[in-house]
Amino acid sequence: MRIKKLHQEYNIELSYTLFPLHPYIPDEGITIKELFKDRNIDIEGAQKQLKVLMEKEGLEYGLRSMTYNSRLAQELAKWADLQPGGQSIHDVLYRTYFVEGHNLADIEILVSIAGSLQLDEREARDVLENRRFSASIDADWQRCRQLKIVAVPTYLCKEKKLVGAQTFEALEKLVVSRGAVRK
Predict the structure, then answer these.
(1) pLDDT grade, residue 83 (50/70/90)?
(2) pTM over 0.85
């Protein structure tokens, strides 16, 4: 919501650099409890708190029990960003994963998402099965390592970054300090 508002009010270009939060997760996923087994975290309490914070920002958030590898979803998103109307895939992937709890490593789910956006399902399947955007995601991951990005979201504007959920005012200050002008 804040990013869309920022884009509407300022003459800025938005782009996604995709980041591997947990790249070691197998395609079939693992439980959230397994993911955090070595940490002393109240998972249910943390999820409920996150849900409240997300709702304050106007974002839906489901209480998930599983986490999945998002590499294929990232590859599909890179392809979709190049298609007319495909940029909306990021919102749909968010909803599919964080609200509905579906496995984003499942090619059938990803092809269905592409189709729901009126993107060519056969080409989407080819992108995924032949890993056509794998090198592009590798480049994104390398860029994240070079920039020392270790958390999502991280907002980057002309090499200055803000980490974590930020207010609209903080994001506005970032882009204005880097030369953005109102539309």
Answers:
(1) very high
(2) yes
